[in-house]
Amino acid sequence: MQDNQKEELKKILQKSMSQEEIHEKLVEQKLKIEEKKQEKTKQKKIFYILFTLVIMFLVVAITYYFVLNSQKIKNYEEKVQIINNPKKIEIQKESKVEEKIIVKEVIVEKQIPITKEKFKEIFLSKNFNLAKCYDYKVFQIKPDNSCKDNLKEFLLNNTQALRFEIIAVINNEDIKKATVLSNDKTLQEYILRGMARDRVLEVSWYTKEVLGNEILLTPVNYYLSSKKQNKGVMIKAYY
Questions:
Q1: Rounded Cα gap, residues 239 and 68, in angstroms
Q2: For the chain, which end, N or C, has fewer CB atoms within 10 Å of the first or last residue's CB respectively?
Q3: What are the C-alpha distances in Å from 128 to residues 21, 107, 173, 209?
């Protein structure tokens, strides 16, 4: 087909052009054909690349979905196993924030049969006694001796409590310290949570030291921000 076009073009051009001009025109036409072929080849390559990327994305997304779903099922089965076979479990998780702040979590289960009625009795009770220790310094983690004495007296007076809950309290001075450590608001929040969590853990360990490991501690994943510039911890004994 292309040869016929060339011959027709050659005949037409011979009437008004020299052989050299004809040759140039043929070469020009050939170059245009080659450019079109290259453009089509380029478009095919782009299409294959995009198609491959889409396939890879779908594979990764599907894999992530199944892994996440599998982990959820595993976590659910572990919770069911804990409820059906209650025993003391101590779990520690550590994660670094700016290589300085370490967040630790400790969960202790008491050796008691978990029935529906017992669950309501332990976790839905709104009756509690409260102790506060607000003499902490900026970013102080461990309670001082004065705070320990007050906490010890409180704990010994509430040995019959169903469970204990410890909550960290921070103020503006703690928040300002976090802003000094990082300009990023997300990291600032991680730093505050880590510091607050360590305050809770230190008091949790001291509580077990006073009352033993068989008590039920229910950890919280939040802190209270004081408008009265209080900083430290509060502990609730539920009945």
A1: 38
A2: N
A3: 103, 20, 29, 21
0.70 cut: is pTM over it? no
pLDDT band at 55 (very low <50, low <70, confident <90, very high): confident
- Give strand pairing partners of 168: 223, 233
DSSP characters for 149-185? HHHHHHHHTTTT-SEEEEEEEE-HHHHHHHHHH-S-H
Q: How many CB atoms lie within 10 A of CB 28?
A: 10
How far is Cα 229 from Cα 171, in angstroms, rounded to an integer?
5
DSSP lists the bridge partners of residue 129 as 237
d(CA 213, CA 67): 36
Contact 123, 94 (CB under 8 A): no
CA–CA separation, 189 vs 179, rounded Å? 9
Cα–Cα distance between 42 and 63 in angstroms, integer?
32
Q: Is residue 229 within 8 Å of 172, Cβ to Cβ? A: yes
Q: What is the pLDDT of residues 144-177, one digit of tens each?
A: 999 999 999 999 999 999 899 999 999 999 999 9
Closest to 198 measured CA to CA, from 127, 134, 128, 104 = 104
Cβ contact 237:126 at 8 Å: no
Sole residue written with tokens 């924030």:
97
Q: Mean pLDDT, to the nearest integer, of 33-61? A: 80
3-class DSSP state of 125 = coil
